[in-house]
User: What shape does this take?
Amino acid sequence: MQLYSVSDLLNQKNRVPEIAVKGWVRTFRANRFIALNDGSTLENIQCVVDFEQTDEALLKRVTTGAAVEIKGELVESQGKGQAIEILVSHLTILGDSDPDTYPIQPKKHSFEFLRENAHLRTRTSTFSAIMRIRSTLSFAIHKYFNDNGFYYMHTPIITGSDAEGAGEMFKVTKLDPKHPPLDADNNVDYAQDFFGKETNLTVSGQLEAETYAMSLGKVYTFGPTFRAENSNTSRHLSEFWMIEPEVAFMDLPGNMDLAEDFLKSVLNYVLETNKTDIEFLEKRLRDEEKKKPQAERSSLSLIEKLNFVIDNNFKRVSYTEAIDILRNSKPNKKKKFKYPIEDWGADLQSEHERFLVEKHFKCPVILFDYPAAIKAFYMRLNDDGKTVRAMDILFPGIGEMVGGSQREERLDVLKEKMAALQIPEEELWWYLDLRKYGTAVHSGFGLGFERLVMFVTGMTNIRDVIPFPRSPQNAAF
Ligand code: 4AD
Ligand code: MG
Assistant: This one.
């Protein structure tokens, strides 16, 4: 007897006399109807048990969460609510559940509760839909780059450099925390550590990706990155996944074109591939919206929002223009911003980014040419001497989705910048070599993968779009 997935069964056009399927019981109704789910699709398949023919003790074990194997005949359903169903001929309990203690009861659970049960939350429709979408997005990203002539490279996870210069890194060490070896100045002597130097978990694969861009031309990395920033927000994780393309001979406008085309392409792909999952999440959001006061409701549905991004050009605005808009905005004048905008040079907070995207432009926005002082050391200095060729892509409901730049390719300018920021040349000698031997204009960006998953699923807490979130005070599972 052939084993099918629920997804395969639901796609059958004709009756199949003999099928087998394995999955978990979602519900068991009237001692007769099992809703079976195996994760292959959002939908359950209805399995109809003939209770008169089935051992009563066996039926008692068909409880929510139990793993079962079902054999039978796939037929057109006689009831409403489903097109096909299985008439069960053999029922085997593969693994019992315990109806009294099983956390995922067939009822609505809060996201907080499900986060505490992250090992079981993908047995719910919402989380299985999110994680299937996450998987598709990941594939779509690899597909986009593969289709467009990029090479996938694996950048190291343990590094000796702080790419973003923000000092928010997790240390990697084998030294005994109680008795670390000390040097002559009484500082911890990392020369005696495992790697013979201080090492950290990477905050970005960019610097290493640049070395491959300057040889293979078009590359990208897609891996885990780690940030020890103490920001307990709904949009930050301590461990998140980042996609970082890096391209030789590409300038900032080319970088913007790439990012825009890339985002539209992956959104399109997931909309087509995970239609059922997205429609389900859209309905969930619609029900949530109904609970809100009219004024706070979103005017676009989830699918409309995704199509809006696919169909419209991202608005490109310089930092200087953005500051003017913000300075003269209503919330700024009425002192509604927590961080009022007064002078050019201010770092933009998420309240400002969201005002620009959600209230002012009402579409994704690419901000560029930021003040050098608020951006990383590697960004290319403009001729004005005070701004750099940086870009951030801001999305409605999310804020910063992408951060990127054209890189400083001039050896002397880069050295000066590093000296000013006290970044030792010995640490990045290999990075400087790229500017010494055959330097060229090049650019790239970083997309926070979980922020993209948030946008596609409409989830508002980043902890709900990664299997096992890591955040300050939390590394459960
Ligand atoms: O803007 P960031 O810090 O840029 C870089 O790391 C560059 N090296 C990228 C590059 O040019 N290759 O981070 C890039 C993106 C952000 O726009 C945001 O989407 C995401 O990574 N991100 C986070 N996502 C979740 N949790 C955090 N703590 C994040 N920090 C950044
Ligand atoms: Mg950034």
About this structure: Residues 392, 400, 403 surround magnesium ion (ligand 2) (CB under 6 Å). Residues 341 and 348 are 9 Å apart (CA to CA). The first helix runs from residue 6 to 10.
